[in-house]
Amino acid sequence: MNLQEAVSDSGSTDEQMIADTASENGTVAAVAQASMPSVVAITTVSVQEIPSFFGYGSRQYKSAASGSGIIVGDNDDELLIATNNHVVEGATTLSVCFIGDDVTNAETETVNAGDNGDLNVEDAVSAKIKGTDADNDLAVVAVKKADIPEDTLSQIKIAQIGSSDDLVVGQQVVAIGNALGYGQSVTSGWVSALNRTISTDDGDSTGLIQTDAAINPGNSGGALLNMKGELIGINSAKYADSSVEGMGYAIPISKAKPILEDLMNRETREKVDSSEKGYLGVVLANLTTEAIQMYNMPTGAFVRGVEQNSPAQESGLCKGDIIVKFDGQKVSDGDDLMDKLQYYKSGEKIEAVIARANNGVYEESTIELTLGTRPDNE
To answer: What pLDDT band is residue 344 in, cutting at 50, 70 and 90?
Structure first.
């Protein structure tokens, strides 16, 4: 699926009139009117395990978080929404609120939903993670069209995709997102810098758009737009720097576009029941940024050990290998791979790309894995 094709094929006469108004007027109000139907609020629930205060066992707690997303395409059955990876990472339940001011109600309903990840209520529609790219902090989630009320479906639209290649410092931009989890809000500012590199706990992120348009928690995954109402960036509060006041950052759409298109074309998978979940048979570790830089290692899941007679051993995986891709998806670390494995059943054949050290130089190769069933004693 191509983002530009999705936009051009989906536009209606009314939508084009609104877009033309934004282009002609060049006002923040016109851009907001044209673009807000493309921006959604996303609520996620993750389960966190907290050790007991007395040192015996642990307890599980549900934790809710809010973010934003942008409708960037569709297929026969699904509406496809771009967002940040950190918005959906680790989510057990995921919901989307398309229009109106029902975000607070949607969050409450999502938290109270069952643990099977399915939720379709008055204020929220259940969504599934279609694909993620943790390295670039991007993800695509899918919503079944059949789950969206007809009156809602008639009001929402697919975003117009612009280009970030011709941006200039001083150009006016508009940011739209679910700021602070309160619902859609609009801020405006200017491109204050281009090609910024920001350091986070996950490493350096390069090529970012810097703007003084307010981007707060909840804005992550929302839209950065030019004055034609075209999507030129995906906002990310993850890159906010507490030592610098009034600066926000966005992933340029020209960088994000090929990644999103790849994720949009993936199969939408459901989390697999524990009894059917695929088993690999490895002990994984997360590489530190310092280790990656010091030993010139690729980013991925570091294999600390391989269990005897496991699918990993049969495929040729060895201790010290780094799994950099799994079923065509980039792997950022061991936790990321374990999260991906939740969507694969035993018996499935998967291609993985591994990096193996050869005289201090890591060389990549592709292997085929047949996932097994976890032994009863594991």
So the answer is: very high
